[in-house]
Amino acid sequence: MGNMTRRELLSRTGKLAVGATVAGLVPNTLLSGAAKPNIIFILIDDLRWDHLGCMGHPFLKTPGMDRLAGEGVHFTNAFCTTSLCSPSRASFLTGQYVHRHGVKDNLSAWDNEKNHTFFDNLKEAGYRNAFIGKWHMPGKIPKIDSLDRFITFDASGGQGYYYNCPLIIDGVRTERPGRYITTDLTDYAIQFIEEKSEKPFCLYLSHKAVHSPWRPPKDLDGIYQNEDLSFLPREYFSFISFLSGKIIEGAPPATTEYNYRNYCESLAAFDRELVRLLDELDKLGITHNTAVVLAGDNGYSWGEHMDVGKRDASEVNMRIPFIVRYPRGTVKPGRRPEGMALNIDLAPTLLDLAGAAPGKDCDGLSLKPVLENRKEKVRGSFLYEYFKDFPYNVPEQCGVRTERHIYITYRGRRKAGIFDVNKDPGYRKNLIGTPEGKRMLPEMKRLLAQYRGGADNGK
Amino acid sequence: MENKYGRIEKAAFLKRFMIPVTTALLGWLVLHLVSEHLGWIESRVMYKFAMNVVHVVLCSYLAFNGFFVYRAMCMRGAGLAERIAGSYITPMAYAIKEIIRVSEFFTVGESFYYCLCAYPVLGMFVGQAGLLALSEILCRVYYKKRNLYNGNAVTVLPVAVFIASMTALYFLFFYDAGAMVFFAYSELYKLIFK
């Protein structure tokens, strides 16, 4: 090698690179100055991480999500940093923890002056941006200059309706009689994708599904009516909603079984629309160069801890589905990396894929190294926060989740706890008073203080 | 207000007020305690059955007990004010229990404001008003037939209270699945506490 000329060196490097690409070891994108990828982020509301056919659900069939998982990277250890709609949505958009972006609950307004979304960076990088669907952050629907298309709704306090939901299309209220919202939003998404343009696009498709009050479309109504539900947790019962403080607003006063079946049927409707969207990408021939990310805003309890909801640091509420399919930039598709992925990682990941830089105040980390199989994980812990969301009966809490344990502290009378999430996912055995817990406590406290004072450095 | 049930013998305070009210309170307490202590049942089927039954009974008890307390007090010659106050003792006790319970999560002011949320406290109070009005009309019909009530069975006030109560319940729980009222409740919360 010592006597090799520059030309020989370049030639050999080129041959090695081609060989590695052919062998599938290195994605093409690393070796070429190819065009920027298109981006589609699909946010589904209240979807549990385990409610996909490919996750072994007893009866759900989700060919769309299964296809994404099979052709992409499925982060089965993905979490939201706050298990509540509005705060988590703001975290996806900004890449920040809640204490930084300030949307602490479903009543704290989005500060459009202070907060910047990844759309701003993508716009600068030459993207055509669209937000279609559920915005659901308190306050007036903002004017976001970096969006070329903004379709949303404000009905029912921003939750929207499954049927006949009026849309606000680029600021103009439009009635949608007879329309089912999951289909309606997908129609607009496809319309945006089909628009001819020299620019790459970024589409943020934010569904109302599968948030309560669940209503499937007529042709899917009842498809899971006779399925056996004996796999639901032992502590669940039909009238959980009758427990003090469980129903506040929104969840229909019906049995848990009735609501659960409607949830699954509404999910089937979502997946059908996802299949339609993915087929459209195939038809347009842009699948290879389009990064599709699918995630849920938070998890959901269906009977665990005698709860139907999402508002605390339990495993089922924190875990979210998170899949990235980007054929051009993925090595070994179909993988399930062990590392933790977070909602705050979306923004830096998309910006990294687009060749744009995230802001300095971004707390999340890019998952691109994991997609390229250069790393199995990007972090060892993260901060969980839940701020008071009156009138829901959940204490304010924050904590640190590591790969094996969670340390959680509460405001008020409830005592702090450390739990082994692998051995005890139901948090039944508090380790804080045990020798093991006492050993862990100082480090957990240090991490918590660090996270609340500064950015996530991945330690 | 003239007591048109004048021909019904007025029992002692203990009998006409304390016994119906205390019975209703004890019934609620027993149901509440039972509902909190069913975790010992090993059989999943039995546990689920017991939890379902107890919670449906408890919920119905809280929702409808005023109707029966009112009637029991009426039969013992209690006046209108006593009948109304007595019928609201159990709901009030439930509201106090809820205020104490939610004070784990909320400030004192918020804990009281929590009771204005449709589910469960405000809804129970509003529904109770309609049931008392209905109970009053049924008591009048019953005693009028026996010549123990000397007025019209159906008058404007109880009918108006019943209609107002049912209309309020419709908006609290059914119109837009209660979302509109909840939105107004949340906006008022922001004005007061944020």
What does the model show?
- The complex is a heterodimer of chains A (459) and B (194).
- By secondary structure, chain A is α/β, with parallel strands linked by helices.
- Chain A is built from twelve helices and 17 strands.
- Chain A is globular.
- Helix content of chain B is 76%, strand content 0%.
- In chain B, helix 1 (13-36) runs parallel beside helix 3 (80-87).
- The A-B interface holds A 107, 156-157, 159, 213, 234, 236-239, 242-245, 247-250, 252-253, 388, 390-391, 393-396, 412-414 and B 44, 47-48, 51-52, 55-56, 58-59, 98, 101-102, 104-106, 110, 113-114, 117-120, 173, 176-180, 182-183, 185-186, 189-190, 193-194.
Helix/strand layout:
The complex is a heterodimer of chains A (459) and B (194).
Chain A: H1 6-22, H2 28-31, E1 38-44, H3 63-71, E2 73-74, E3 78-79, H4 85-94, H5 98-101, H6 118-124, E4 128-133, E5 149-152, E6 167-169, E7 172-174, H7 181-194, E8 201-206, H8 256-284, E9 290-296, E10 301-302, E11 308-309, H9 315-318, E12 322-325, E13 341-342, H10 346-353, H11 368-371, E14 381-386, E15 397-402, E16 405-410, E17 417-420, H12 435-453
Parallel strand pairs in A: 1-8, 1-9, 3-13, 4-5, 4-8
Antiparallel strand pairs in A: 2-12, 5-6, 6-7, 9-12, 10-11, 14-15, 15-16, 16-17
Helix pairs in contact in A: 7-8
Chain B: H1 13-36, H2 44-75, H3 80-87, H4 89-102, H5 108-114, H6 118-145, H7 156-174, H8 179-193
This entry's quaternary arrangement is: heterodimer
Q: How far apart, in Å, are the first and last alpha carbons of chain A?
A: 39 Å
Topology, number of strands of chain A? 17
Shape of chain A: globular
Total domain units of chain A: 2
Overall number of structural domains of chain B: 1
State the helical fraction of chain B.
Answer: over 70%
What sequence of helices (H) and strands (E) makes up the elements of chain A?
Answer: HHEHEEHHHEEEEHEHEEEHEEHHEEEEH
Task: Estimate the helix proportion of chain A, in percent.
Answer: 25-40%
Weakly predicted, low-confidence segments of chain B: none
The radius of gyration of chain A is 22 Å
User: Pairing-aware structural class of the strands and helices of chain B?
Assistant: mainly alpha
The number of helices of chain B is 8
- Share of β-strand residues of chain A: 15-25%
Largest interface by Cβ-Cβ < 8 Å: A-B, 30 and 36 residues
